Each structure stands twice: as C-alpha cells, then as structure tokens.
TrEMBL record:
InterPro entries the record matches: AhpD-like (IPR029032), AhpD_core (IPR004675), CMD-like (IPR003779)
Annotated Gene3D superfamilies: AhpD-like
Boundaries of every Carboxymuconolactone decarboxylase-like domain copy: 25-96
Any Pfam family hit: CMD
Name assigned to this protein: Carboxymuconolactone decarboxylase family protein
Residues that span the membrane, as ranges: none
Organism, as annotated: Glycomyces endophyticus
Length: 157
C-alpha cells in the first residue's frame, strides 16, 4: 500500500516534524513512569484510527519490555485488570483529550480529578503534552494515508 501523500519527503514536513519531535523530547524530563507514555501513544492512535502509529507504538512498547497482553487490552482497559490507578487515569485523560470535541464540556471533571490525584504538576504537564503530540502525529499520518505494518521497533530512534 502506498501513502496518498509522501508527507515525510516534503521539506516543509521535515520542519514540522522536527518541532513536534522537540516537543515530544521535552516530555522525557516530566517524571512519568515509562509505561504511561507507551499506553497513551497506543490508545490515542487506536481511537484516531491511525494504523501507522498504532503499529509503531505497539512494537516500540513491546521492544521496551511492555507485556503484549497488556497492550492487547489497552482498547478495553476499563474491563481489564492489569492496569494501575495511574495508568487508568492516564488512559481516561487520553480518551477525553483525544475525543475533546465529543463532549460539550471538554474534559470531564471526574477524569481530571483522577489524573490530578495520580500525577504531580510536571507529570501532568508531560501527560497532557504526550496526548497533544500523539494526536498531532495521528492526524498527519491519517491525512497523508501513511500505511501500517512496515515499522520496525526503534526505526526512528
């Protein structure tokens, strides 16, 4: 399958990606447990129907040592037992932040309060940033029609 547009071949896209990657790099100092960004990246990508990012973040998470069973349950995390309170709060905030237009009030107060209980200010800033960055990448890849399935773990490291 060919992309409908080779976004990553464009010099303009190269500049955009450089800035998005810089924003993502800043999150590394937020103090989030390593598992949380992996779960967030996967869940937002699933919601947005971004096969390219779903493939990438599943493979990168497994490569980083994440349990494939947990990753397979991310789409049904509310009914699954292997997630911590912090992971559940992060996944709930990810869903609300990804589907922000679906709610008349934006982020539900209960979802926000749960995230606030689990994360300090730096971690919360990092979590919000991861959610924003992956949503941007999902949109770039879905709009360009980037095909899924060909990613190798660590390919863009």
């Amino acid at each position: 399958m060919e992309p409908r547009f080779n976004f990553y071949a464009s010099p303009v896209a190269g500049k955009v990606v450089k800035f998005i990657n810089s924003a993502a790099k800043a999150v590394e100092g937020a103090g989030l447990p390593a598992e949380i960004p992996n779960l967030v990246l996967l869940r937002a990508s699933q919601i947005n129907g971004c096969g390219f990012c779903t493939d990438m973040h599943y493979k990168d998470a497994v490569h980083a040592g994440e349990d494939p069973v947990r990753l397979n349950l991310v789409a049904a995390w509310r009914e699954a037992v292997p997630f911590t309170g912090a992971e559940r709060a992060a996944l709930a905030l990810t869903e609300e932040g990804t589907r922000i237009a679906d709610a008349q009030t934006g982020i539900d107060a209960g979802v926000w309060d749960a995230a606030r209980e689990e994360f300090d200010d730096d971690q919360l800033a990092g979590l919000i940033s991861v959610i924003a960055v992956i949503n941007a990448y999902n949109r770039l890849n879905v709009l360009a029609g980037s095909p899924a399935g060909g990613y190798t773990a660590g390919q863009y490291a």
